[in-house]
């Protein structure tokens, strides 16, 4: 444990207890343990769900993840790819969510473990960034706010980050629950 990483042990009632923070209070991902547990989870889930899919677990350095790339990426391929991607990749995102719960990840680490299939996530990320830039330009030109359709907190976060510091606009999330929307407002020139 000389590198500062804590080890997982048995918690109350013999359940796994994953370290959620290091002593300095910042969340860190134990990649090796996460990979072992992801393999265990995926082998079980894919077998029990009867999905004809293979997966590959890819890793990046933590510095790459600071630039938006996940430390651990799970990429699916196989006959049931279309099923994973139906309805805006609902099943893919659900599997990722359950995997985060399986790993008992600190919410700050959710972006460090990402699932993808057919480059859906990379494409969606670029679409959101482009939409943000186009909408911001429209707000600057018209002076009128632009309201996106309801979207997940992750997608709203991508737009907030894309427009953070952009000239002449500010972003705000409004609404509640699954109806929460991101709105781009013009910044008054005073």
How does this structure look, described?
This protein folds into two domains: 9-118, GMP Synthetase, Chain A, domain 3 (2-Layer Sandwich), CATH 3.30.300; 124-186, Ribosomal Protein S8, Chain: A, domain 1 (2-Layer Sandwich), CATH 3.30.1370. By secondary structure, the protein is an alpha+beta fold. The strands form three sheets. Strands 3-4-5 form a three-stranded mixed β-sheet. The chain has a three-stranded antiparallel β-sheet with strand order 6-8-7. The model is unreliable at 1-24 (pLDDT under 50). It has five helices and eight strands, in the order E-E-H-E-H-E-H-E-H-E-H-E-E.
List the helices and strands and how they pair.
Layout: E1 9-10, E2 16-17, H1 31-49, E3 54-59, H2 62-66, E4 72-77, H3 81-103, E5 113-117, H4 120-142, E6 146-147, H5 153-163, E7 169-174, E8 181-186
Parallel strand pairs: 4-5
Antiparallel strand pairs: 1-2, 3-4, 6-8, 7-8
């Amino acid at each position: 444990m000389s590198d500062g990483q804590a080890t997982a042990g048995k918690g109350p009632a013999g359940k796994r207890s994953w370290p959620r923070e290091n002593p300095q209070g910042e969340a860190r991902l134990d990649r090796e343990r996460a990979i072992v547990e992801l393999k265990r989870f995926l082998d079980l889930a894919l077998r029990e769900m009867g999905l004809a899919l293979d997966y590959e677990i890819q890793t990046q350095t933590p510095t790459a993840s600071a630039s938006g790339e996940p430390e651990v990426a799970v990429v699916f391929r196989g006959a049931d790819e279309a099923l994973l991607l139906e309805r805006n990749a609902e099943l893919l995102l659900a599997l990722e969510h359950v995997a985060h719960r399986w790993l008992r990840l600190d919410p700050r680490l959710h972006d460090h473990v990402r699932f993808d299939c057919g480059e859906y996530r990379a494409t969606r990320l670029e679409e959101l960034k482009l939409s943000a830039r186009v909408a911001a330009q429209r707000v600057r030109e018209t002076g009128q706010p632009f309201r996106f359709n309801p979207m997940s907190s992750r997608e709203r976060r991508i737009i907030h980050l894309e427009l953070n510091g952009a000239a002449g606009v500010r972003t705000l999330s409004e609404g509640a629950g699954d109806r929460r929307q991101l709105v781009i407002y013009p910044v008054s020139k005073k």
